[in-house]
Amino acid sequence: MKNSKIVSVLYLLALMGLGASCKKEIGSLNGSTIEELSSNATKFQLNNVVTGTESGMRNSIDFYLDAVGMIGREMYRFAGSEPRYTSDLLGGGNATLNNNTFYLTNPWNARYRVVKNCNILIDAANNSTLIFPEEKKGYLGFAKTIKAYHLLLNLNLTYTNGVRIDVNDPDKLGAFVPYEDALTQIAAMLDEAKTDLTGSTIAFTLSSGFDGLNDAAGLIKFNRALAARVAVYRKQWGPALTALNESFFSLNGSFTTGAYHVFSSGPNDQLNLTFFPQNNTGEIRLAHPSFAANITPGDDRIAKATLRTSAASLDGLTSNRDVWVYTSSTASMPIIRNEELILIYAEAKINQTQLPDAIVALNRIRTGHNLAVYSGAVTQAALITEMLFQRRYSLYFEGHRWVDMRRYGNLGQLPLDRAGDDVWEKFPLPLTEN
Amino acid sequence: MRQMLKQALLVFMIASLPTLLWAQVPVSGTVTDGTGKPVPGASVRLRNSNLGTSSDANGKFTLTLPGNGGTLEISAVSFKSQTISVTAANATLSVQLTEDVGKLDEVIVTGLATSVKRKNLANAVATISSKDLTGGAPAQTLDAAMNGKVTGAYINANSGAPGGGISIKLRGVTSVFGNTQPLYVIDGVFIDNSSTPAGLNSVTGAARGGSSSNQDNPSSRIADIRAEDIENIEILKGASAAAIYGSKAAAGVVLITTKRGKAGQTKVSFAQDLGFVKIRKLLGNRTWTAERAEELGGNDAPTRAARRQEFLDAQAAGKIYDYEKEMYGQTGFTRNSSISVSGGGEKTSFFFSAFQKDEEGIVKRTGYRNSGLRLNVDHRLNDNVKIGVSANYINSSADRALTNNDNNSVTFGVALSSTPSFTELHPDALGNYPRNKYSASNPIQSRDLVTNNEAVDRFVTGINVDAIFQKSTNSTTRFIGRGGIDFYSLKTTALFPNSLQFQQVNQGTNVQGLTRSLNANYILSLVNNLAASPNLNFTTSAGITQEQGDYNNLLNVATKIVAGQTNVDQASALTANQLRNKYQDNGIFVQEEVGIIDAITLTAGVRFDKSTNNGDPNKYYAYPKAAFSWNLTNSILDGGPFSNLKIRAAYGQAGNFPAFGSKFTLMNIFNIDATTGLLVSTLRGSPDIAPERTSELEAGVDFSLLNSRLNFEVTVYDKRIKDFLLQRPVAGSTGFSTEWVNAGNLRNRGLEVSVNAQPVATKSVRWNTTLNFWLNRSKVTQLDVAPVVLGAFGNTLGNFKIEEGQSATQIVGIDGTNGVIKLGDAEPRFQMNWFNELNFLNGFSLRWLFHWKHKGDVINLSQLLTDLGSTTPDYDDIGADGKAKGPARAALVGVTARPFVQEAGYLRLREVALYYTLPKMPIDFIKSVRVGVSANNYFTSTKYSNYDPEVSNFGTGFSTGVDVMPFPASKRATFHLLVDF
Predict the structure, then answer these.
(1) What does DSSP assign to residue B227?
(2) Which of B617, B737, B794 lies closest to A25 in CB terms?
(3) What's the burial of B20, exposed, middle or buried (CB within 10 Å: 0-12/13-18/19+)?
(4) Which of A241, A299, B681, B688 has the most crowded CB, counting CB atoms within 10 A?
(5) CA B672, CA A54: separation in Å to the nearest integer?
(6) How distant is the Cα of B367 from the closest Cα of chain A, in angstroms?
């Protein structure tokens, strides 16, 4: 009896030891990990990353458009529960832009998240032995093009504060590159991407937003369109025209040809959050009153700012027109389209003082919008004014006005609605970057 | 595992082998109190055995002792215990117990399987008795019932929404991003206390803008447990007391013991509460005039005229409404019925209860219902082996409405904040709700059509085996096995029909969440009690533990739904999300307690833990503990003013495992155009993430004066958290937004003083009173990363900041040319509570509880929203600067966050209750009848301007105390009837 008790106690203790040493490693249960992609990714995995990149390009794009749209005095964003749209972004009273607030951090982080995804795609493609070299070139070309484009969008926000270009190693981030240098490197990245795409095979599928541009030749055209935009930002008029010629630019083509973000209510897809129904209350995007006040009579682009049944007011701001650019929650949003390319053509030609060519392009825009041909002064200055005016209406709420006025040193011309309002030149670097 | 259970069973069967027939001593006796009244339910136990009984309603008991007798221990709640040697010669006992005002004889669990009396305890362990928990003015849920009753705790209700949701932080901030809430253990079963969001964010967009944290206002699952079933709660406040719980104990441990049956006559108790619940405070409305209405039109002349006309028309028609009152002003009816049966024989005893609570909320279509069954059975196989089983089923349902922050102007508060009282929101004769011109939603319509329900089915079942398998004159060895499972299935339903004003784009949204959570744990231990000499006692325990959790949440978001349909397939767009958590933790522990002359107690122990959540799942982390207490009155002091004097010190370490998955960097699903995509997560994992470690040193002195009628307990503690886990924001250019790091160290220091007295003790009046005082100060002593702002909406509106050398709960914000500076601190300066029980006039009992939280700030953004919406009640009042207050405050947005950081101290009469026990029973089968009335939260004095100083937009995490349009707090009044048969 006594013995058996002692034996059983020993038994129990031994078992306790055994039980405690049962080993178990529980993996990630909620999705694949970044590490799984870096070691010999399959084509399926690479294609997933391509699609994720395209999908992620839309993240927080509404915050971006609201921020640059408000500072560029294109529109007002009213929100019942968010005062900082009308205070910080417009510099209401003593309010200034904050370096750790959603209007900056959300789009900034979303863009770099896509850059990160592009870097993951580049690494994964480079490490994969399961794809042909031509296919690899396709992945690399796509990744570098999108990466360059997204760096450009963040550079638009921080301007002379610059952006980081080398961000592949999160523990060893490259330094901030000042504006001009950053533009140079972005242009170089686009050129490198073009080289990759040349002779590549596209093994991945893009959304319908890239219809017509989703093969190697198409992606080169898309890449060159972006390169043309970067070139005019860099005042490199000749290269801008060269890039245009290799893009989908068509002086007499449809304004809407181009690459788009598309939206759907499908699973894990996104809706276009820049859409609000007309005459919405509480959460509203309104056209800045100057949009309708300054428009040329007869211009069909007035349709981008429809009259409300009643005006809306908040925080001393009032407007009676809704922004009506994205007219449904699944309306596409341009990344770059031919109307901009025509205006880039005009801009480059004006700056090269080939004014008649420029006027042809500007007239293409004017007549395309139900206006008479240009009859103003044929001087470089006057045509720049006209070009910027057409860009304002053609590219309304597509994220250009503020950048354009800044490029030409015209921020002082933007209207102030309230005493004490400010027009900001640039965003501060996000707090986390310091 | 199965093999092990088999072995355990074997051991336990061996131990229960029939023993030899010994001689027997039949003992009988009566237990009475100081005044000679019988004490029912007193426990009578034979020392060093599992043999025992309890006294009946007349205080009588009988017990048959084996052998030639032994030492009986007689104890009862709130009386000092007694030991009596019994032989055949003195087998008829008359036991008179004396009252234990200072609860010195209360038995406190100090190990996983061992306990000591409070007078020898080295820690300040807070206890809440059944009477303190539910004997006054009962709260709706268990977590709310604990509020104001725990010395050393900062307990804060997230909102007034039905169904609970309360943050409990013991002795300051124990973690920033790890678990801040204590571990709950009910009868040995580890209880899941997670909060599962209902996916409201897909409609409110709350986490899209300023803060990506969840703001769905879910309840905490501990709220499911029924307070009335609880016999006793012990709160191990820090690592020094809780080290033996290892890596789950950093935030403290709440040990809950449920009621159990006692041998004797079967007792049937019936309790019925009826009452009502009302909003605690209405804020009121801005007084509108034609001019003020006109201002809403801004600078657009036609709109100004239209607003003015709208007001004038409404005024003429007498249609100026009080929408706040319409939304929040409902008087909710509450009822709570329960029946319990308890009793048992010599071998088997049981406690059974069945209950249903049904309460309406202060908002139409909100409420809380909780029903359940409990069966606790104890069975003694023989003198040496005892088994206890508890089984609890709970079904609860909470309708919690749509409140808190949002970015789409759809929650009630946000919609109301910009809605003037002269606009029409009521449905017309055909039932059509007008569009709210002033917001994106019509709150009256939202209230009438939106559903936000949490429904839970939960099983908690545990087993407790206590087998003595070695017994000699001076040594007893027991096997103690405890364990069980906690399983629940939670269904969240968030339904937004397509007729809602704000569903124009989505055409109706139906969010359904299904959560399945299974937690299982066991503790197997061996405890040896060795009386080496009459003055030297050793208690040695050793054992193993295992905890497993498996959590699976499936959330379906359907939009474009078929009108009137509530199944998720009745829609044209459906997105599914799934979140799984799984872990297994293993532990080994040993503990040695030495008792010297019943005066000095020395304890040392260590626990080794590993977890699959750690970067290295096979690495054991050690959590040691040591404690010392010396009861001077039991040793060197004899006589003198002290009836009890004890000095004590305890040290211990505990941990907090990283959250599941923090070692991985995930690729998230991001599709486009029906093609599957992967986008890197915004959260960067950390492959070598380690648990955070808390070490706590506490010391104190306890003394009693005036023959134990005045008792003091004074405790100081120093709690250090090393390698605290932080989800810190990282440079966005990395591609991530946050990453997990073990970021640094922080410290909490505090003082707890408890005074307990019986100022009046006469035959007709007895008054027991307890006054507790506590404070905590935290400091980030080391931070290896840059200061981190977190927890709210950025510096413009005020938020928390983890910064070296500063309080962990400091609130910072912009302040004009001062830049970003500290504007406040969420930590209360100190807290006090005052507990009273007054028995008078033979049968009356008056109980009340005051709770005072002195200072401590809240970030109040609700007022900001009403200021921006021009609806604040004091909008037009002239402030000290000669300007209207509302516009003046609103103009400070972007200039300073100072106006939003507001002091939120309060003095609150949490509970007051008067009960009367009928002296004579009308019918003889009724044993006792008590009636009572109680009021909960009926008086609050606070400077805080919004609904309630207790608020948390972000739920129970680190950043409690952010106020964004919460569900308003309520007050309760209840009539009680309790009948015993």
Answers:
(1) G
(2) B617
(3) exposed
(4) B681
(5) 7
(6) 27
Q: Do A9 and B406 touch (CB under 8 A)?
A: no
* B666: nearest CB among A33, A95, A432: A33
Q: For each of chain A's 434 residues, which pLDDT tens digit applies?
A: 344 454 455 455 545 554 444 445 677 888 888 888 888 899 999 999 999 999 999 999 999 999 999 999 999 999 877 888 999 999 988 889 988 889 999 999 999 999 999 999 999 999 999 999 999 999 999 999 999 999 999 999 999 999 999 999 999 999 999 999 999 999 999 999 999 999 999 999 999 999 999 999 999 999 999 999 999 999 999 999 999 999 999 999 999 999 999 999 888 899 999 999 999 988 899 999 999 999 999 999 999 999 999 899 888 899 999 999 999 999 999 999 999 999 999 999 999 999 999 999 999 999 999 999 999 999 999 999 999 999 999 999 999 999 999 999 999 999 999 999 999 999 999 988 98
CB distance B131 to B835 below 8 Å = no
Q: Does residue A92 lie in a domain region?
A: yes
Q: Which residue of B has its CA nearest to A10?
A: B11
DSSP E strands, A254-395: 258-261, 284-287, 305-314, 317-323, 333-337
Q: Is B20 on the interface with A (CB under 8 A)?
A: no
Which of B437, B579, B679 has the highest number of chain A CBs within 10 A, making it the mutation to test binding with A?
B679
Please check whether residue A355 lies inside any domain of the structure: no
Cα–Cα distances (Å) from B66 to A19, B49, B71, B379, B382, in that order, read 38, 11, 12, 18, 11
Please give the residue of chain B at the shortest CA–CA distance from A147. Answer: B735
Among A residues 33-72, those touching chain B with beta carbons less than 8 Å apart: 33-37, 45, 48-56, 58
Asked if the ipTM is above 0.90, the reply is yes
Number of structural domains, chain A?
1
Whether A170 sits inside 8 A of B890 (CB atoms) is no
Cβ atoms of B942 and B907 closer than 8 Å: yes
Subunit contact A112:B439, Cβ cutoff 8 A: no
Distance from CA of B545 to the nearest CA of A (A): 8
Question: Cβ contact (<8 Å) for A48 and B676?
Answer: yes
- B540's CB contacts (< 8 A; 6+ apart) are B527, B528, B530, B590, B591, B592, B593
Among candidates A37, A281, A329 on the partner chain, residue whose Cβ is nearest the Cβ of B667: A37
CATH code linked to domain B126-281+330-786+826-856+904-980: 2.40.170.20
Helix (H, G, I), strand (E, B) or coil at B315: helix
List of chain A residues whose C-beta atoms are within 8 Å of the C-beta of residue B895:
93-95
Pick among 2.60.40.1120, 3.40.50.410, 3.30.70.890, 1.10.3470.10: CATH of B2-99: 2.60.40.1120
Residue A40 in domain: yes
Q: Which residues of B292-320 are buried (b: 16+ CB within 10 A; e: fewer)?
A: bbbebbbebeebbebbbebbeebeeeeee
**Domain that includes residue A54, residue range:** 34-72+86-205
User: Which positions in chain A touch B587 (Cβ < 8 Å)?
Assistant: 20
Q: Is A122 at the interface with chain B, CB within 8 A?
A: no
Query: Do the domain assignments include residue A371?
Result: no
Look at strands B92-96 and B24-32 and give their pairing. parallel
Q: Which of A48, A167, A311 sits opposite B678 (nearest CB)?
A: A48
Contact A26 B583 (CB under 8 A): yes
Tell me the CATH number at A168: 1.25.40.390
**Residue B355 contacts by C-beta under 8 Å, 6 or more apart in sequence?**
B226, B228, B336, B337, B338, B339, B370, B371, B372
Domain ranges of chain B: 2-99, 126-281+330-786+826-856+904-980, 290-321
